[in-house]
Amino acid sequence: MTTLNLSEAKASLGRLLNEVKKGKKFTIAQRNKPIAILTSIESTGQPERKLKIGVLKGYFTVPDDFDNSVSEFEDVFYGTQNE
Predict the structure, then answer these.
(1) pLDDT of the residue at 77
(2) pTM of the complete model beyond 0.90
(3) Residue 36: phi, psi to the nearest 5?
(4) Cα atoms in the Cβ-side hemisphere of radius 13 Å centred on 60
(5) Which helix (H) or strand (E) holds 9?
(6) 2-44 fold
(7) Could you tell me the residue ranges of all domains in the chain?
(8) CA 80, CA 46: separation in Å to the nearest integer?
(9) SS3 at position 5
(10) Are the C-beta atoms of 28 and 34 separated by less than 8 Å?
(11) Can you give the C-alpha Rg of the chain in angstroms?
């Protein structure tokens, strides 16, 4: 495994990622002390996360007037509301 200092890794991140896609691993060091390993997701054995739509269905309800007070929030946020 190749070790790179942080500044080297920053300067060549694109190239490093291409190498990682091919299966290579890199150790990233800061002041010559290893702090991270750059590796592909596949090599970690962790499954890719997939977006789950609707997992909270039934846990709460959104009121019909949910977006009616947007202008009120904008007034407070942008400072146009009189105090």
Answers:
(1) 82
(2) no
(3) -160, 160
(4) 4
(5) helix 6-11
(6) YefM-like fold (3.40.1620)
(7) 2-44
(8) 49
(9) strand
(10) yes
(11) 24
The structure tokens 């947007």 sit at: 70
| DSSP calls for 69-80 | THHHHHHHHHT-
CA distance 16 to 24: 9
Task: Identify which of 57, 49, 26, 22 has the alpha carbon closest to the alpha carbon of residue 39.
Answer: 26
pLDDT digits over 17-57, tens only? 999 999 999 999 999 899 999 999 877 666 777 778 888 88
**The total number of residues written for the chain in this structure:** 83
For residue 74, which phi and psi values (nearest 5 degrees)? -60, -40
Buried b (16+ CB within 10 A) or exposed e, 11-41: eeeeebeebbeeeeebebbeeeeeeeebeee
